[in-house]
Design goal:
By secondary structure, the chain is of the alpha+beta class. Helix content is about 25%, strand content about 40%. Strand 2 and strand 3 form a beta hairpin. The longest helix has 29 residues, at about 1-30. It is elongated. The chain starts with a helix and ends with a strand. The model is unreliable at about 95-100 and about 100-110 (pLDDT under 50).
Length: about 240
């Protein structure tokens, strides 16, 4: 009986050891080092507009040459931590290198400002509307007004940097030249300007422009308010002596 117990205990111990070994093996494979493709993806995310070239690798690191518009860099990736270990500059492009005094070519010659035609072309990138005006302001800024179907945009353009920014937006008021205000609408407009009792309302026309004449009695004097029958604009207010 004791022998059977010992045999059973040995079998149980063997199963436990097998499970432990399997866990170690699984843990080892789950922490696989970064692949080259994963490293390139990381570089593209952190350094867009750059071109990586793998020049060396081992079990722990990848070494890349990284080039962009500014120059060339040496970049090391830690495969185990899956992160950038360091980034060192190797060389700069000629346009970015300074002379012995620390000045660059751009510093030596003043940049030319954009012409009005170039400014307008840049402003039109912000809108498909028609250019109404282009006005030079202070500090090398142009203000360009563009009119669209439903809005009017104001675009400011820096003539040195070429940077454009929408600085104003106004909705256009739809006009219906064929519609004439109702008598009540005209009365409401007139009473908004002169408080009192409406005594008479006439619709007249002069030079093709229709207008209302609305007589209003007040506690002191009477007034006649002339209102554009299309736009609703108050054209005049005349007080009786």
């Amino acid at each position: 009986m004791q022998r059977i117990i010992w045999m059973g205990g040995g079998a149980l111990l063997a199963v436990v050891l097998f499970v432990i070994v399997q866990q170690f093996m699984t843990a080892g494979t789950s922490a696989a080092p970064m692949t080259e493709g994963e490293a390139i993806q990381l570089i593209n995310e952190q350094y867009p507009d750059s071109t990586p070239e793998l020049i060396d690798e081992n079990d722990h690191t990848f070494l890349f040459n990284l080039t962009n518009d500014y120059g060339m860099y040496e970049l090391e990736i830690d495969r185990e931590n899956k992160s950038v270990a360091y980034l060192n500059n190797i060389s700069l492009n000629e346009s970015d290198e300074g002379d012995d005094n620390g000045t660059t070519e751009a510093d030596q010659s003043p940049s030319e400002e954009l012409t009005e035609e170039e400014v307008i072309a840049i402003a039109q990138e912000s809108s498909t509307g028609e250019v109404v005006s282009a006005t030079p302001l202070e500090n090398s800024i142009y203000e360009v007004i563009l009119e669209e179907d439903e809005r009017i945009l104001t675009v400011s353009v820096d003539t040195k940097s070429g940077e454009a920014q929408i600085t104003g937006e106004e909705a256009k008021i739809a006009e219906d030249p064929g519609r004439i205000l109702s008598e009540q609408e005209a009365i409401n407009i007139a009473l908004g300007a002169v408080a009192g009792q409406v005594d008479d309302v006439d619709l007249e026309q002069e030079n093709g422009v229709p207008y209302f004449l609305i007589e209003i009695e007040t506690d002191e004097d009477d007034a006649t308010v002339q209102i554009n029958a299309i736009s609703g604009e108050i054209m005049s207010t005349v007080w009786d002596d």
